[in-house]
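Chain A, query sequence.
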Amino acid sequence: FKQKTAYEIRLSLVGSEMCIRDRGEKEFEFLQYWQVIVKHKWTVIAAFTIVVLTGLMVTLLTTPMFRATSTLQIDRQAMRVVNMPGGDSLEAPTDFEFYETQFQLLRSRTLAEKVAASLDPEDPAFAMMSAPSPWQKFQQLIFGVDKKGAQPVSPEDLRGQLVGLVRGGLWVEPIIKSRLVKINFDSPDPALSAKIANAIAEGFIESNMERRIDNSSYAKEFLEDRLEQVKLKLQDSESALANFAQEERIVNIDDRQSLLTNDLASLNAALTEAKQERIDVESRMRQTQGAGIYSHPQMLANPGVQALRSTRGKLEADYQEKLVTFKPNLPLMLQIKSQMEEIDKQLEAEVQLIKASMVATFQSAKDKEGMLQTQVDLLVNDVLALQGRSTSFTVLEREVETNRQLYDALLQRYKAIGITSNVDANNVSVVDSALAPGGPFSPNLFRNLLLAAFAGMALGVFLAFLFEFLDDTLKRPDEIEKHLGIGVLGVIPRLDGVTPQDAALDPRSAFSEAYRSVRTSLQFSTEDGVPRCLLITSPSASEGKSTTAYTLACNFAQLGRRVLLIDADLRNPSLHHLLGGDNSIGLSNYLAGSIKPAAAIRPTRTLRLTFISAGPLPPNPAELLAGPKMMSLLGLAGEKFDQVIIDGPPI
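Chain A, predicted structure.
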């Protein structure tokens, strides 16, 4: 037993074996895989032998094929003898799709048709390629299928067959990290293989040159058409520009626009100055509206007014001085007062004149501002109108420039293609021409046998594990616990060439030791030790049930126990053969009521072991065993014997 913290041991029989195993042990080791292979070794050997023989037969019956190889170098771009601007390829040099395209062109049907057209259909090698191989003849012989019809072949069908043979024998093999590619061709004739491999290489080079020439011709025709179209568009756009300039009377729109812009800026400045002047005059005019003779600002700054004010001041002083001496109605006083009133009238007239002058000045400033505003508005309209016309003019001018640039570019490209189309080198070249091979390429006997051996071994192992998986019998103790819910007590080895009686006579044999282990396990199966009455059964017949019952009975008897062994298998009893007794009277007689229990009991050669045989086979064993007499016998046996072991029928 493996070391575990706890064990749970139960008794169970699997086939003709009994198993002892720890319930918690479920590991599936490599040795168990090996045991599965050993168990189905004949399946593995048969599968291995069949596959290897089949591989050998297929190899020997396959027509030998000879492979010829031609090597090509495919450059991304051909070397240019003349390098013209604009004549380079538009494709990126790192475009990996280019090489895959070339490989597919090598495998194309068009190239195969071109190569087939250069071959002679009457060549005997083609008949050899079209003829069935020995393996195909063997299949026709076995299955009775004739793949070749007796009807005549038309030239079109013959040509199609040649194309199929060319494509079927072709293998394109790119060489990694290089610009080289191998063209392999397989056929039964070595000379034909070399001929077709070289024909494919030459045909591919010719096709590549033809495509390049066709592309150049197409490009030239396309550019000619585009040049004519762009030329007409350029002429139309130039005519539209000239007509527009004539209708709008535009000579140099940039200078005209600059002049109008400068005039508008000058008038804007003058208008701003006139507005400021008008505002100043209006402010002074508003100040003079409510001013008096002596408070008007203009009066204070006018020399004439200042003189009148000075004269009046003197008269006022003289009047006040004489008013002290004279009366106001005196002629002298009246004269002075009259002079003062005259001066006041002059001052009032001067103020009115100043106010009228301010109003006139304001009106002049206002009129000037209005005139400038009108001129600015007119100039703004002229500028806006000019901008509208200049936008249309610019659009037409831009269209002319665009058409001219496009025409120049197409013309340059057209000239470059015309110069370089006839001087470009081909980008495909032959590195190595194909030679007739000295020996067959396939079939490879060693490689085929190695693959067949590997496949046969894999198939055999697969079938072994498949049969093991499909086998639903219980093979391991953990399966008993999983499917039946029964614990495992021990493992009894299978006996080969030795009877259980002979194996039990040797106390040192593994057979005897295994049953002693089961006996010990039974003694520790319950708190009270081994149950007084034990029933031994098995899933089906001939699995060692009777041997187990007999051997356990002997082992318990060796411990000094009084043991009663009952053969209760009333359909197929066998214990009387092991013990060498008579089966004419036994358990069935007692259960049928014809004898007493003591008449059925008989001694054995083993000390303290007593035996009750099955007796004559009854027609209704299940009813007899389920009757009260069986329970009465077990009760009586439990009182007289220490251990009762019943060899029951299979489940």
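The chain has a mean pLDDT of 79. Residues 331-420 form the longest helix (90 residues).
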